[in-house]
Amino acid sequence: QVHVVESGGGLVQPGGSLTLSCEVSGSFFDIIVMGWYRQAPGKERELVASINRGGSINYADSVKGRFTIARDYAKSPVYLRMNILKPEDTAVYYCNARIMLGQSGPVNDSWGRGTQVTVSS
User: DSSP string spanning the chain?
Assistant: First the structure.
């Protein structure tokens, strides 16, 4: 099976910084897209940032200029570096990997269980 595990969440003061890591393991042909999503209490899950095979990156408007997504293809292949954190950034952050299981498919979305980020003074 494919396993996705996030780490790095915690409590941080407004204006502080935090870096999340996502590790993907298992057997698969390729990872098409990796992304970070978040879900705050009572709200829908939303895209925070994503990066595809070609290095194309998308950010939510609410985090542009503050968050950075990066891949290093190591043990923790994708990171989310969060700066100037705001209370409204408080959420469970999920790592998503869109994975091609074989050369001709199928394609699946694999999700981690999430890591809590709380921004509070």
Answer: --EEEEE--EEE-TT--EEEEEEEES--SEEEEEEEEEE-TTS--EEEEEEETT--EEE-GGGTTTEEEEE-SSSS-EEEEE-S--GGG-EEEEEEEEEE-SBTB-EEEEE---EEEEE--
